């Protein structure tokens, strides 16, 4: 059933299919989207957190892209895998050099004859060789085990292990620091709203979404971009992607306070002919990104998200969350994703402009207002809409 075009936010009277009158108190009722329940979930081009559900299929055993850029591969792996690699790299190196110390001691006869001058003091077996390898590489230096002048091979091996230890420490520390300072972690503190809204701004239908920084330190500069992604399924399971850039009203942003990113639904917009009736049946995804430089580190970061037609709320606007205090501005992030209903024509931007132009007179304006019949006569209804109004809703 369909509600009237404009109705009060207090109580709404509706007629059911059986002819019964039902009154719904909408004061405590919140309807956010015109989503329809569907058993099958459509695969997104991008997840809400900015990740792409893309899997690259390579020939079996083809690991060259990961091995050629091993540092980036190690930075991108999970922390638990990184800790495992961190532990195994040291343990395996201790075992490797310990095995060589044991072989030197075995060839020199230190294992069987305790009376000979050893190559490494107090290394008579593999356990002692492993302990000496660990003490050498970690620079513990207990003073109980050490190389002597009897074997030049042992001295060369200790030198090689010292150089390898410095190289391994540099790589491990660099990877850990890179993961800790990863741009992805900072990107989680800059977020987009969970939904996008369509409303009127200066008489023009606009699609907008909200962007905010959840940390106290501010962003020096940033650029917001938006792109419309559509895909067409071809025979044999192939998919063809198409990309269209959306023009943003003010792309360069200083994110000191939350901002609303606006895209006007003008004739140049690919969403110009899209209305609320065919919105849910549309097959597209709006990919929004914000690339910025942080003031504390000077590093370049990017935050991404996407909006499907089910994430777009027609005839709504974001609630005000910025207030003026005595000494500073107050931002209430509890209202970051909250929306409220506003009076908006339930037609596409193309149809809305067609009804307004070429002349905006009373006749063209009357096409957007409902009519009523009384005693055989037809009247135009002029509606006085308060701040709390709602739009047509399909239930």
Please bin the fraction of helical residues. 25-40%
Please state the CA-atom Rg, rounded to the nearest Å.
Answer: 34 Å
Structural class: alpha+beta
Order of helices and strands: EEEHHHHHHEEEEEEEEEEEEEEHHEEE
Tell me what portion of residues adopts beta-strand conformation: 25-35%
Number of strands: 20
Mean pLDDT metric: 76
**Mass-distribution shape:** elongated
Based on the structure, what is the oligomeric state of the protein chains? single chain
Quick one: CATH class of the largest domain? Mainly Beta
Here the CATH topology of the largest domain equals Immunoglobulin-like
Number of domains: 2
Low-confidence stretches: 1-40, 360-366, 368-375, 377-395
Biggest sheet record: 5 strands, mixed
Features:
elongated; alpha+beta; Helix Hairpins; 395 residues; disordered N terminus; 5-stranded mixed β-sheet; potassium transport; 8 helices; Ig_E-set; single chain
Give a structural overview.
Helices cover 26% and strands 27% of the residues. By secondary structure, it is of the alpha+beta class. The protein has 2 domains: 64-180, Helix Hairpins; 190-357, Immunoglobulin-like (Sandwich), CATH 2.60.40. Strand 18 (371-374) and strand 19 form a beta hairpin. Helix 2 crosses helix 5, helix 3 crosses helix 4 and helix 3 runs antiparallel to helix 5 (152-180). The chain is elongated. The model is unreliable at 1-40, 360-366, 368-375 and 377-395 (pLDDT under 50).
């Amino acid at each position: 059933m369909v509600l009237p075009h404009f109705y009060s936010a207090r109580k709404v009277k509706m007629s059911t299919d059986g002819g019964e009158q039902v009154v719904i108190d909408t004061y405590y009722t919140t309807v956010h989207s015109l989503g329809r329940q569907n058993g099958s979930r459509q695969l997104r081009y991008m997840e809400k957190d900015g990740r792409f559900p893309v899997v690259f299929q390579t020939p079996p055993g083809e690991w060259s892209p990961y091995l050629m850029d091993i540092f980036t591969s190690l930075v991108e792996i999970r922390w638990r895998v990184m800790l495992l690699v961190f532990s195994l790299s040291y343990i395996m190196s201790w075992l490797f050099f310990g095995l060589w110390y044991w072989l030197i001691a075995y060839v020199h006869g230190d294992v069987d004859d305790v009376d000979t001058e050893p190559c490494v003091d107090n290394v008579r077996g593999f356990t002692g060789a492993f302990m000496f390898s660990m003490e050498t590489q970690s620079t513990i230096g207990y003073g109980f085990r050490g190389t002597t002048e009897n074997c030049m091979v042992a001295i060369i091996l200790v030198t090689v292990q010292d150089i390898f230890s410095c190289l391994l420490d540099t790589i491990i520390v660099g990877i850990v620091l890179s993961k800790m300072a990863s741009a992805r972690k900072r990107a989680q503190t800059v977020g987009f709203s969970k939904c996008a809204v369509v409303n009127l701004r200066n008489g023009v239908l606009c699609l907008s979404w909200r962007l905010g920084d959840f940390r106290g330190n501010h962003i020096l500069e940033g650029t917001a971009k938006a792109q419309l992604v559509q895909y067409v399924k071809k025979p044999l399971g192939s998919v063809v992607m198409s990309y269209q850039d959306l023009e943003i009203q003010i792309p360069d942003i200083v994110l000191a306070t939350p901002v609303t990113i606006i895209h006007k639904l003008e004739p140049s917009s690919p969403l110009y002919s899209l209305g609320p009736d065919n919105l849910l049946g549309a097959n597209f995804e709006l990919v929004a990104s914000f690339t910025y430089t942080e003031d504390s580190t000077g590093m370049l970061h990017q935050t991404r998200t996407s909006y499907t037609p089910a994430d777009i709320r027609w005839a709504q606007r974001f609630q005000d969350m910025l207030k003026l205090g005595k000494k500073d501005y107050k931002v209430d992030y509890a209202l970051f994703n909250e929306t409220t209903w506003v009076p908006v024509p339930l037609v596409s931007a193309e149809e809305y402009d067609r009804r307004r132009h070429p002349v905006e007179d009373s006749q063209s304006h009357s096409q957007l207002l409902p009519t009523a019949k009384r005693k055989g006569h037809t009247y135009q209804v002029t509606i006085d809409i308060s701040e709390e109004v709602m739009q047509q809703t399909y239930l």
